[in-house]
Amino acid sequence: MKNCFEWESKLQSFAALVVWLVLCYYFEPWMVPVGGLLFFLKQYAIKGLAGPQPVPWDETADSDLDDDDDEEKEKEEKKSLKERLQAIQEVTQGVQNAIGRIASLLESIKNTFNFTVPYLSWIAIVLLVLAAVVLYFLPMRYLLMLWGLNKFFRRILRPHSVPNNEVLDLLSRIPDDEMLLDYKDLKLLANTETERRRDPKKKQKAS
């Protein structure tokens, strides 16, 4: 998909653009289950043309399981305990980072509706109103076609532009709960320091 958007192969990108526009224009929701039925029909036709299987599935599965077990034992013997622990730590760190990003994003969305940053919340309100008006007057298929045209022609019309997501950019400017706690702590410390400067007696007692 990225190669199609970057027009590395003009023929491939043009074909992908045409396919996208045709799919968006003629797509109907009932086509999704019909597509699943077509996959079943294809596999059924292949099995019918191939004829009966010479080996029962159970025997094949058992032999495959035995081979897989032998291969897995060999691989496990080759891996050292240190490598396993390192792999587990990397996976755990990746999962924690992903959960942290998702939690931060959800907290930013919550703070958007809480008017934590008022002018950003008002921008979000205006964008929602505009989105509602556009969705009311324009069918979804035309919006998808326009989105596809923008993605495909961005490389041609704006070759030096950096692709970004405006919604995520807006949410990135709204603090999450951890940022708000840090801000409140800093504000409390600043107020305490200001009071100490104003009242030197409190400063002497504190010392």
Automatic annotation (TrEMBL):
Transmembrane spans: 12-32, 119-138
Any single biological process term in GO: regulation of neurotransmitter secretion
Occurrences of domain Multiple C2 (ranges): 59-176
The organism's place on the tree of life at top rank: Eukaryota
Molecular functions per Gene Ontology: calcium ion binding
GO CC annotation terms, alphabetical: synaptic vesicle membrane
Pfam families tied to this protein: PRT_C
Positions of region (Disordered): 55-79
Record's keyword terms, sorted: Calcium, Membrane, Metal-binding, Repeat, Transmembrane, Transmembrane helix
Family matches, as InterPro entries: MCTP_C
Chain intervals with Acidic residues compositional bias: 59-74
PANTHER family noted in UniProt: C2 DOMAIN-CONTAINING PROTEIN, MULTIPLE C2 AND TRANSMEMBRANE DOMAIN-CONTAINING PROTEIN
Name of the molecule in the record: Multiple C2 domain-containing protein
